[in-house]
Specification:
With 307 residues, the protein is α/β, with parallel strands linked by helices. 35% of the residues lie in helices and 20% in strands. The longest helix is centred in the N-terminal third of the chain and has 14 residues. The radius of gyration is 19 Å and the shape is globular. Bound molecules: iron/sulfur cluster.
């Protein structure tokens, strides 16, 4: 499978079959916290980055094996950059009745063609990581064509025409955007956008720029009350654990480490494995030379072995 991965366990979407529409690493932003590495192609240009018919053929094959809770368009860049996004959503809808979710940075949600493409999705989850232009520039490092105020208006504009579930994800960074002043500004934008839910997140894996940017769980909880109605915390902390499988699919494990370096605990959570099973699978892949260990701040992360 080149474009489809999982299903992976997601706290918000249950067992989610991922569809990767954009080649790594193509995005409108170059976020300081991005787990996919630095953006190598920063653009706002929409193109058919991957062939729609091949993507749909892979989705059909994956559905033959398993029925996920959601099919989620996300992946190695920004999915709304795909000019065939509407065709992919419509194609999936023609294949099955599994709800379709789209994870987007939201930068292009004000564009009429993007809005049109997203109307048939069941859940759209845009991001808003900053409450003003300076923080937006610092955290998201957008393409110069994207400015903060029009971007927020785009998020609000899409809400006014979209009747599906609309969940705003706010990812906070320690020492950068976790101040009460910044969160109040984000909350004011959220009031304007009127999502169905606001979900607070933070980084829990190494980012492109390294450094520890995770906001402690209790601080995130305290910040939820700045939003009306209160936000919910969705950060995947290691204590959040769902049903454990007893056998690991090595392809799924490698696919997950290809998206970002993973600890055994990440695999436990992401793939619903028991701790022993995750470690056993990683040890076997290490012995076969399929993955390698990198030590980041004293923790062992696994990634596909580089030549
Ligand atoms: S929007 Fe997402 S994919 Fe793009 S740079 Fe930011 S975190 Fe990475």
């Amino acid at each position: 499978m080149q474009y489809v991965f999982g299903p992976v366990l997601s706290r918000r979407l249950g067992r989610s079959l991922g569809v990767d529409l954009i080649p790594s690493k193509t995005c409108v932003y170059d976020c300081v916290y991005c787990q996919l590495g630095c953006t190598t192609r920063r653009t706002t240009a929409r193109r058919e980055w991957t062939p729609v018919n091949e993507v749909l053929a892979e989705v059909a094959r994956a559905l033959d094996r398993d029925r996920p809770d959601y099919i989620t368009l996300a992946g190695s860049g920004e999915p709304t950059l795909h000019a065939g996004l509407g065709a992919v959503v419509a194609g999936i809808k023609a294949l099955c009745d599994v709800p379709v979710a789209v994870l987007t940075n939201g930068a292009l949600l004000g564009c009429p063609d993007v809005q049109r493409d997203l109307l048939a999705a069941d859940v759209v989850i845009p991001s808003l990581d900053a409450g003003d232009a300076p923080a937006f520039a610092k955290v998201n490092r957008p393409d110069p064509a994207v400015r903060f105020a029009p971007m927020v208006e785009g998020l609000a504009g899409f809400r006014s025409i979209y009747s599906g579930a609309y969940w705003l994800e706010v990812l906070l960074l320690a020492g950068v955007t976790d101040t009460e002043e910044q969160v109040r500004k984000i909350a004011a934008c959220a009031r304007r956008i009127r999502p169905d839910r606001v979900q607070l997140n933070t980084v829990t894996r190494p980012s492109a720029e390294g450094g520890r940017l995770a906001v402690p769980h209790n601080k995130l909880e305290a910040l939820t009350h700045i939003f009306h109605p209160p936000a919910e915390v969705v950060a995947d902390f290691p204590d959040v654990h769902t049903g454990a499988l007893t056998a690991a699919d090595p392809d799924a494990v490698i696919a997950m480490t290809r998206r970002h370096p993973c600890t055994a605990a990440d695999l436990e959570q992401g793939l619903g494995l028991s701790q022993a099973t995750a470690q056993q699978c990683l040890d076997a892949l290490l012995e076969q030379g399929a993955v390698e260990v990198v030590l980041i701040e004293g923790r062992a992360y696994y990634q596909p072995k580089r030549e």
